[in-house]
């Protein structure tokens, strides 16, 4: 890490044009494989009261291997001076993401048998009306806390496999002993590249982001010899339909006055609707997950069915 006042101008660190010293500094940094740590959004480290402008004479160069580990900060001005302190923070190559403490249910370790039985006993004391829905939600929450384990990982690293976890622990020990040793830097660089490659491969999705997937494939493959004229010719061929069929006119029948929508819901319809629910979906405003609904007992399902029919007949939610 090299920090100092280089007294040089370059467009790379915020000046309008280069001078001789700036060109020499860039050549020197390139020759020794150094990278400039600079953020154009940060204020200048020197504020000239004469020219009423801020400049960046104070530069920080680091080895190219630890460039991704360094971050520059410009602090508040020093009183009665025109300078601002500059700090360079060196972090580990891979650091866990700090997430807020929000406990989530671990449905894989839930006691669904006890959950269904306990909830069936509690709903028998609640009338199936819209006014009592909050009581039902509270009973469901208390039962879930008792039979479904909860937890939260405040420090999480996505894509960290058991093999990478062992290497990450070894890298942490090396970083605590000497963060600037060659072995530590090489281990951190290799670990970060491996994790980045894993995230790149797992993030390729031809269904939701085909453009990103094709860009990745093009970077890995050699350039093809297909010309633009060949692409245009194939597009013209694809646009010509081989067999054109006439459009079929669909005559919709008018709705009858009496429909099956006025009939009350049945238990078979409720079970069919619950069976089509997908796990892993976000909970609604009542904070009830799909996994909890799927494990309702028979008495709880009848309670929900009576609630739906009550809302349908009284036109109240």
Automatic annotation (TrEMBL):
One GO MF term attached to the UniProt entry = catalytic activity
Q: What residue ranges are annotated as transmembrane?
A: none
Mind telling me which SUPFAM superfamilies this protein's record contains?
DNase I-like (SSF56219)
User: What positions does the domain Endonuclease/exonuclease/phosphatase occupy?
Assistant: 1-75
The record, for Gene3D superfamilies, names: Endonuclease/exonuclease/phosphatase
**Name of the molecule in the record:** Endonuclease/exonuclease/phosphatase domain-containing protein
> Per the UniProt entry, what species is this protein from, by scientific name?
Latimeria chalumnae
Q: What is the lineage of its organism?
A: Eukaryota, Metazoa, Chordata, Craniata, Vertebrata
């Amino acid at each position: 890490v090299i920090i100092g006042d280089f007294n040089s101008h370059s467009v790379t660190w915020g000046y309008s044009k280069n001078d001789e010293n700036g060109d020499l500094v860039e050549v020197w940094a390139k020759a020794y494989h150094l990278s400039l740590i600079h953020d154009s959004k940060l204020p200048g480290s020197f504020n000239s009261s004469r020219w009423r402008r801020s400049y960046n004479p104070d530069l920080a160069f680091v080895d190219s291997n630890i460039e991704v580990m360094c971050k520059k900060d410009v602090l508040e001005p020093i009183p009665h001076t025109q300078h601002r302190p500059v700090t360079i923070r060196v972090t580990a190559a891979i650091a866990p993401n700090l997430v807020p403490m929000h406990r989530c249910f671990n449905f894989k370790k839930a006691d669904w048998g006890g959950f269904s039985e306990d909830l069936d006993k509690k709903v028998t004391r609640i009338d199936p009306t819209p006014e009592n829905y909050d009581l039902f939600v509270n009973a469901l929450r208390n039962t879930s806390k008792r039979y479904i384990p909860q937890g939260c990982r405040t420090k999480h690293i996505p894509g960290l496999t058991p093999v990478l976890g062992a290497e990450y622990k070894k890298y942490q020990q090396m970083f605590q002993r000497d963060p600037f040793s060659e072995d530590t830097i090489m281990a951190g660089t290799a670990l970060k590249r491996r994790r980045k490659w894993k995230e790149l491969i797992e993030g390729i999705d031809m269904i939701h982001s085909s453009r990103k997937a094709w860009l990745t494939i093009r970077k890995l493959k050699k350039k093809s010899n297909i010309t633009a004229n060949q692409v245009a010719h194939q597009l013209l061929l694809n646009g010509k339909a081989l067999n054109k069929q006439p459009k079929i006119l669909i005559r919709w029948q008018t709705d009858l006055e009496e429909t099956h929508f006025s009939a009350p819901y049945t238990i078979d319809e409720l079970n069919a609707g619950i069976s089509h629910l997908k796990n892993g979906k976000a909970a609604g405003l009542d904070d009830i997950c799909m996994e909890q609904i799927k494990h309702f007992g028979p008495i709880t399902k009848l309670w929900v069915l009576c609630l739906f029919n009550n809302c349908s007949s009284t036109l109240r939610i």
